[in-house]
Amino acid sequence: MTLNRQRVIDDLKALRTMTGNAHGAQRLAWSEPWLAGRAWLRERAAEVPGVTCEQDEAGNLWFSLPGRSRKSVLIGGHMDSVPNGGWLDGCLNVLAGLEVLRRLAAQGRPALTVKLVDWADEEGARFGPSCFGSGSLSGAMKPAQRAELRDSGGERLRDVLARCGVDVDRAPRARKRLRDALAYLELHIEQGPVLEGLGLPMGVVTGTFGVERHSVTFTGQAAHSGSTPMKVRRDALIGASRFQLAVRDIAIQHGGVGTVGRVDAQPGIVTAVAGEATCLLDQRHLSARKLTAMNRAARTVSARIAREEGLGVVWRTLWQTPPMPFDPELIRLGDAAVKSVCATSMRLPSGPLHDATEMARAGLPTVMLFVQSLRGISHAPIEDTDEAHLRLSVAALDELVTRVMAKLG
Q1: Is the pLDDT of residue 311 over 80?
Q2: To the nearest 10°, the Cα dihedral for 162, 96, 112, 170?
Q3: pLDDT in tens, 319-353
Q4: CA-CA distance, 114 to 105, in Å (whole number)?
């Protein structure tokens, strides 16, 4: 049996029809469409001779093709989507991996066991924390500490997961699944414009950015907007606005990215000067040293702006994660795999985090392949990739699995 790359595209389209609508993919983790998509995935995998399926304590699905050795190579992805999401994010990884299992199963017992994992709740779109399933294995996620989180409808994470057969307190026990793993491989759409801008179908990911995420609150004095002269105002929103511009300049200076994604001003009415303004800050870089420098620069500039505007400023850390470089030898093999099907490859970092980040954090040698995203758009209904590039990506993943198994087996 040879690899059937078109079948992957057909499966992706079938999944889109089954679990989406005119507004995009609707496979929110732990929801009925997500469960339906997973049930369909189980049915497709059950058609592959020798492949078994299990759900672990964190809700991840494992599809295993036993090899002559229990040592395993993992291929990973996720079936969940953001609300009104795209048709490729996450599920391309899973369905391409399933096609690789089909090809391997048809050629006899492989030297190593190959496992395809559908990670539970990579997006974190319902309860907040991303990478619930993979983070439970890496130890970064402390599920019991998240158990009382509630979604927009008021339902607790603990209760929702229980209905899906997951006991939050037992989720970290899933880590035992990594005992025999030798490598983790993931294919993903780029979700950005770099490959398209260079005219390249695919690239190899060198690692994922570290992230600094903070709440920054400027405090001034609320006052009547009609009777308060401009020169005596202590306008917190002016401080927040100046800070947002400074964050952009800091990111450009250090070669990273910086975003103020939200600003809440109080009292939030047109007839009052803002007495308080809170910014949500996100800074990312592949270099831990430069990420620290970016954060230090942002803190310094916030203090200067506050002093110049007669404001107070307070920082509160929301979340931090260090940069996660991928395995150099697997990056080399990824380059070779991409070049074997595309002629040209390039190496690039990933700004978004992925389940691959958690596998690298767990100490498992890890690499990702990126395939070009049209317009650089993801997490939206117009998310798309040229079908010719999708077929190349399936072939590149298969080639990567072959090369990794030859190296490790």
Answers
A1: yes
A2: -10
A3: 888 999 999 999 999 999 999 999 999 999 999 99
A4: 10
Instruction: Say which DSSP state 351 is in.
Output: S
CA distances from residue 141 to 130, 182, 360 in whole angstroms, order as listed: 9, 22, 14
Going from the C-alpha of 136 to that of each of 72, 130, 187, the distances in angstroms are 19, 11, 21
Residue type, 382: I
Contact by Cβ (8 Å): 58, 98: no
pLDDT at 141: 87
Q: What are the structural domains, with CATH classification, of the chain?
A: 5-208+324-408 (3.40.630.10), 210-321 (3.30.70.360)
Tens digits of per-residue pLDDT, 135-179? 999 999 888 888 999 998 999 999 999 999 999 999 999 999 999
Question: Among 236, 237, 317, which Cα is nearest to 282's?
Answer: 317
Task: Using a cut of 0.85, tell me whether the model's pTM lies above it.
Answer: yes
Other C-beta atoms lying within 10 Å of the C-beta of residue 21:
12
At 1 the pLDDT is 63
Instruction: For residue 270, give the 3-state DSSP assignment.
Output: coil
Is 335 in contact with 204 (CB distance < 8 Å)? yes
